[in-house]
Amino acid sequence: MSEQELEKFVDRIDAVFLPVKNLQESLLWYQEVFGFDLRWQNERMCGLAIAPNCGFHLVQIPDFQPIDKYTPFNFVVKNVEEVRNKLIEKGVTVSELRAGEPKRFDLSDVNANWISVIQL
User: Fold this and answer.
1) pTM passes above 0.85
2) How far apart are CA 64 and CA 47, in angstroms?
3) Within 36-77, where are the H helices?
4) Does 4 have pLDDT greater than 80?
5) Three-state SS for 26?
């Protein structure tokens, strides 16, 4: 292939869409546990504010199955141990800290979806 055919034309990923069993229950959980503000909501989906240029959306799926075989994305934090301890205090199921770099652990949300938390 020529260099012209390999030209990259995508700037970034705009949003992540996480499947959930119950939209309202999931929205409340993410607001209570992480303090994410609601940007918008309709009957099936909502968008949460995490950071500029980062779309995080919850999508209610009729035949919902949790993502529990891998973590579909990472939350990035400044201090992974501090965040892990806060989540434990809030009753969130978390893994042990993983060996190696970056420092990281996984958490299970209210839907049993697994998400990684990493320190960069």
Assistant:
1) yes
2) 19
3) none
4) no
5) helix
